[in-house]
Amino acid sequence: MKRMMCLLALAGLAGTAAHAQKSAAVLAIEEYRAMLADGNPAELFEAKGEDLWKQKRGPKNASLQQCDLGQGPGVVKAVFVTLPRYFADTNKVQDLESRLLSCMENLQGFNAAEIAKTPFGKGEQNNVTALATWIAAESRDMTFNLPQAHAKEKIAYEVGKRLFFQRGGAHDFSCASCHGADNLRIRMQDLPNLTKNPGDGIGFAAWPAYRVSNGQMWGMQLRLNDCYRQQRFPYPGFASDATVALGVYLGVNSHGSKSVAPALKR
Fold it and tell me: Coil, strand, or helix at residue 13?
């Protein structure tokens, strides 16, 4: 009995030490982000995105100011926190980046399929990211409220949920392997539980974000594709039905949380 009590005491001490270590690491990262927040390089992408929205470009020499992101042509305020959603003109559920591709093709004459095939960080994909960054900033501190009234929105949620828990790849991982339970982390990085509302500015509510570690601006499409890379899956493709469905699942789960996008990430 004494031996058992000693073992339990040691286990308790180990758990307390691990919690203290985690808390110290989290606080250090939060302090680091706070120091950089006033000069978040995402602001440069915001400015570029606003300029691109108004610029006349493409084969049709037109701006994006008539682009309908769900609240009517030209409206950008508060649209980010309602995406992905169903659009009647494309008969598809679209997230912000895939919807921007549709507008760039229909209004400006760009080839959306070619832009989607472009490697991340190259050509017009950089412009899509900048546009998404500015539009996301126009909904900062607003709460997510994705619609689920249309049948295709409900289907997208269920597909996204199945993809989230689908295991595969060389390591038999799923999205849920890292983001399916509370109190998980990799090294000093906390991993939010995305099967429920993780809270304001966490998970879905933080992207697009500027990655300090590589000096790049990442939209949600790149964030999801990189998760697939870490699972040793092939990239599903920019603006694919799979990544949009995952966005629906994560976005609906984030209902009521505040967006801090564009955020600052390690």
Answer: helix
